[in-house]
Amino acid sequence: MTLQEQSIRLQDAIWDGSVPLDIRLSPQECRTYDNSDSYLVSLSDASLIYILKHVFYQIQYPRLSYLPFLLPRLHAFFKPFLIDPDVRPYEGWFSYEDVPLKWHYPLGLLYDLFSGAPPAQANGSDGDDHRPPSQRPSTLPWRLTLHFADWPGEQLVQPDAEGKVLHDAFINSVKEADFLRNGTAKGIMSLSKEDSTQLWSAVQQRMYLDDRSVFDPIFQKLLYAQGAPLRHVPLKIYLPSSPSASEPSTGHLRVVQSLIAPSLQGTKEPQTLGAALHTLLPTLFPSRKTPILARPVLHGAVVPLNSQLEGLLREVAYLDGWLHIGLVMMG
Question: In angstroms, rounded to a whole number, what is the distance separating the alpha carbons of residues 279 and 302?
């Protein structure tokens, strides 16, 4: 297999990546059941299967997509069970184990950060968990709670009915990545109206697109704007941290970013992920080559520290042009 064929295969795998979700309405907002009621009875292989406890909605959802795009269909599905049926779809928000999930983070990033699922490794193992697969706790489907009341305003910005807040959040992230790559945001700003519309439409409709043919032509224009050399790598590191006095809630994240050049300072040697992490978080990454205290995770897999950042950016960036890398502690 050639390098180009490997690249296409990798990008296709990331594009097709998904997480099975089990979405349940918050019990405080549901008027039709208690924890002992059975909701669904289905007939399978001549036996009755009773699914207890909650009204739920299951879906296989793309890792690259965003949870708010699900709200209209979830609102329609759960409306008969809502205590307040007049709530509007855009008022919905999601939580996992009582942690509000940031709606402007891609689903794959949220899953990697909060689910507790062990990341995949190049050797096919699941991190530090050496138990047989049958003895490991399952994180799938990922069970989320849907709320339409008590918006957590201190942790989440509320979207609007027209979707402008979500659109602007995504486009601003694209602009920031464009500026870091090229020293200017002319790439995204100079897109034609048709290209801009196609870009956002591809993001919105990711669940219904079988391949990258709609999204890629526009994304490639941004990655290789006017053939300009890469100035900095759009890289964000997500580090779980302890609650503080200002942010006492669980699920707190520290987001680390800085200007990271594609080459090591004063040389033409390519910048590696290990070198960047050593610069940004030397205590967690005392070695540039070997993970000792934490592992970097991208798209559900551990990334080798010797990976070149420019290559990662070209091949496996998220839809907004960023490398969103979560850290998983070892041990």
Answer: 19
Per-residue pLDDT tens for 225-277?
Answer: 666 789 999 999 999 875 554 454 556 789 999 999 999 988 889 999 999 99
Q: CA 300, 306, 308 angle in degrees (round to 5)?
A: 85
d(CA 178, CA 176): 5
CB 141 within 8 A of CB 56: no
pLDDT tens digits, one per residue of 119-173: 998 665 555 555 444 444 567 899 999 999 999 999 999 999 999 999 999 999 9
What is the length of the chain? 331
* Cβ count near 109 (within 10 Å): 23
Q: Quick one: pLDDT band at residue 37, thresholds 50, 70, 90? A: very low
Cα(236)–Cα(223) distance, integer angstroms: 17
Asked whether the beta carbons of 215 and 197 are under 8 A apart, the reply is: no
Computed from CA positions of residues 200, 203, 208, 212, in that sequence, does the dihedral angle turn out positive or negative? positive
Start-end of H helices in 205-269? 216-223
* C-alpha span between 138 and 126 (Å, rounded): 12
- Measured at the alpha carbon of residue 285, what is the angle toward residues 283 and 291, in degrees to the nearest 5? 140
What's the rounded Cα separation, in Å, for the pair 239 and 221? 31
Distances in whole angstroms, Cα of residue 68 to Cα of each of 75, 141, 244 = 11, 19, 28
Distance CA 267, CA 265 (A): 6
Place of tokens 């269909």: 73
- What is the per-residue DSSP string for 296-310? EEETTEEPPTT-BHH
* Model pLDDT, residue 21: 94
